[in-house]
Write a structure and sequence with these properties.
By secondary structure, the chain is α/β, with parallel strands linked by helices. Helix content is about 25%, strand content about 25%. It has a three-stranded mixed β-sheet with strand order 2-5-3, covered by helices on one side. The longest helix is centred in the N-terminal third of the chain and has 31 residues, at about 60-90. The protein starts with a helix and ends in a 25-residue tail after the last strand.
Length: about 450
Amino acid sequence: MSDFLSNFTNDNFDNQEKKKAKELEKEVQEEQEVEPVEVPAPPPLIESEPTDEHVEFDPTYKKRRQKKMMLFSLGGLVLLLGIFIAYYQFTRVKVPDFLKQEIAQAREWSAEEGIPLKIENTYDFDIATNNITKQNVKAGDKIKKSDTLTLTVSLGPDPEEQLTLPKFEAMTLEAAQDWTKEHKAENVSIVQQYHDTIGKGQFIKQEAADKELNLQEYKRKDRFTVYYSRGKENFEKNIEVPDFANKTLTEVTDWAKKNELKLVTEKVFSQSIALDNVVSQTTAAGAKVAKQDEFKIQISKGKPLIVPNYQNYTLEQARELSNKVTAVLKSVYSETVPYGHFISQNIAAGTEFDEKDNPPTIEVTYSEGQPYLKDLRNSVLEGDLPKLFFETYSAKGANITYDIYYMDSDKPKGTVIEMSRYGEYVPMNTHLTIGISLGNIQPAEEFVNGSPEPYMPEAIEE
């Protein structure tokens, strides 16, 4: 059918009409040339009178026949024209105006009409993304269903285009939003967040997704975020506070997270509340709080290790104390505190420690009283003096010093035979002199026959 219509031209149509007209004219001429034939009269009826018969030719017959032929030809022509028009309408579609329309609409039309599409993409600042910028067939023209409609679709602004970023820190929120719209900087995100100190609509900070991005070379494709303040967030106080006394820390933590509260904990010792349970809460049970409010509680650290007051004990009593706190007891000389009485402790009485915290060792000092000098004569050797004076006096806070001198003596060499002071209480700062035997004199002979008188040699005769 398509081949017939493609070959059906105006010339062929005219030739066929002329041919039909000639054939019709020829038939009319032949009919005019034929002489009228007399039709024999029917045989006479019996008992009828003879009549004269006359045959006449209808002069309108030719015209009616010509008119009939003309109508028949015209009807055929109209039928052919109708078939051609119907075929033309069936094989062609009117193209709508797709300019600035979304490509989805063109695809829907293509599926309904059976027209294949060819899509070409291009960057266009003025036409929105996925909207059509050009079509190869004008709107209103028709296109064969076998032909392809080519559409050019916008990809939006060029992502490789370099943009000069403004100073957002000097701009308000509205100005920043207007800039992004004007420059179609779709990858510049304007984010609003609550802030306790920065006013609403004011700049907070800015940051690029690529930390190494040079902002002087920013392109439309680069992701960039600018933060502006929503102001301080205010919440309605509609959260009722439960009574958490003696509840576990886990229970309070879960409740605070669920209600978006800021939980603040303080650890304290308790003689009655178990470890990690609530001792007290600053907000009373039944009160109302709002989201982001602080909720303060005290958590038990268990029973503490308490430092005793050693002032209430003598040295002997302190040694007998049973306590988990480690204490080192020592005694020093004192001119004012009597022997065995308390002088000091390095950690104050009543201080509390947690066993898990490895509490420090307590140093407790008691009095040795005033220094007392023992008699060292004939019982101590010179070599024992340094140790004796350090352990007996220096280690206990007394500054007892001495000087050594040597003297002739029949005592063993190195024996202490003289002391400048001994057998008495002395001040904290005392200096002594100590005489040491040279052992260079022979000892006297023993008594003779048990006589108390020493043996005397015979007198030398004069």
